[in-house]
Specification:
With about 350 residues, this protein is of the alpha+beta class. The chain has helices spanning about 100-115, 160-165, 235-240, 330-354; strands at about 15-20, 35-60, 75-80, 85-90, 120-125, 130-135, 140-145, 170-175, 180, 190-195, 220, 230-235, 245-265, 280-285.
Length: about 350
């Protein structure tokens, strides 16, 4: 039994609050970018036992291909120099997102710019989704070995070649001045991002590249495959399956601000390129009743009455309660009037006797 001042768990009340978070509400002097920021909540929430992501509106404005991501460079050697001499160059794509049509155009332009006097053509088979590179007059090689430009130490997403369908550690040589890349092109491989809220992170993630433990996060947000469009989640049951519903034991004692960042699985912060976003949280708080204190909202149970003893041979007659005379103002006035009349009668008899 809980003593005076102790929290009575069986009497706790759960109350839900909905909080709308918009990146525009941050302090722009401290956090100029919507990629990572802190925000002050409109109220102080205590004893938070659960939190749920109701929905979010995110822009797919981040670049899949960028120099920051390390996936815009490809090492190519072209045998079109004097007397067939080898000319090596790093072919670089501009930062951005590409479709099956635009990747052909921009990769072709980058190859022609890298090798003066060359004429390249690039095509994409829409059935196999494999790219074919060709040069009109000379053979060429593509190098994705560890020492080549644009190749990182990561086993996946290690550089531009990974997204174009080239295996890591390969040295591919054209045949008849043409080369079909062995793998399929992966132009938009990100199917989700992680919502990181430092104060509410309670979802375990697997360790990257075989590590046993990964950092905790708050929610997994699915993405559409269309770039530069807003992603609206929480609109149907399928999306709700991906959204977070996190419980906290022990509860979060006090919550008055949020530290927010959206990240890829490798921990890299998503760069929305300055486009704002918003999301909604449902917070479940435990409102404790304190045992030993009067609480008008609490149901107070009456104490049990002692059992009645049946004694058929003993009769006890309880005397009726004495009658009480209800005194009021009229009763007092009658007494006064009677007293005055008695004095008057006595005076009359006194005069008669004289």
């Amino acid at each position: 039994m809980a003593g005076v001042g102790a929290v009575c768990d069986s009497c706790d009340t759960l109350r839900k609050f909905v909080v709308h978070v918009d990146s525009r509400d941050r302090n722009f002097d401290k956090y100029s970018s919507p990629n990572s920021y802190k925000i002050t909540l409109p109220a102080k929430y205590t004893h938070v036992v659960a939190a749920r992501l109701l929905g979010c509106e995110l822009p797919s404005s981040f670049f899949v291909f960028s120099a920051t991501n390390g996936n815009t460079a490809l090492a190519v050697t072209w045998y079109g120099g004097p007397a067939g001499a080898a000319i090596s160059a790093t072919v670089t794509l501009p930062d951005g997102n590409y479709t099956q049509n635009t990747i052909v155009t921009f990769l072709e332009t980058a190859l022609n710019d890298a090798f003066a006097g060359s004429t390249w053509t690039v095509s994409l088979n829409t059935v196999t989704y494999k790219l074919t590179l060709a040069e009109s007059g000379h053979d060429f090689q593509i190098d994705t070995r560890a020492t080549a430009a644009g190749v990182s130490a990561d086993p996946v997403e290690w550089g531009l070649g990974y997204y174009l369908g080239i295996p890591k550690g390969a040295l591919l040589t054209s045949a008849g001045r043409e080369l079909t890349l062995p793998g399929v092109a992966s132009l938009n491989p990100f199917t989700y991002i992680l919502l990181d809220i430092a104060e509410l992170n309670n979802v375990d993630t697997g360790g990257l590249y075989g590590s046993e433990v990964g950092p905790r996060t708050f929610a997994k947000v699915p993405l559409s495959n269309a770039s530069f469009e807003y992603v609206f989640t929480g609109k149907d049951a399928m999306y709700q399956m991906h959204l977070a519903h996190v419980q906290y034991r022990p509860p979060v004692q006090r919550l008055d601000r949020l530290s927010i960042a959206f990240k890829f699985h490798n921990g890299q912060v998503v760069d929305f390129n300055g486009i704002e976003h918003s999301f909604s949280l449902e917070l479940t708080c435990r409102l404790p009743h304190v045992a030993g204190r009067r609480d008008p909202a609490r149901v107070v149970r009456q104490p049990r009455q002692p059992p009645q003893v049946n004694m058929p041979h003993i009769f006890v007659q309880t005397p009726p309660p004495p009658k009480t005379v209800k005194k009021n103002a009229w009763t007092s006035w009658w007494w006064i009037a009677g007293f005055i009349v008695a004095i008057a009668i006595a005076a009359v008899y006194t005069r008669g006797g004289v």
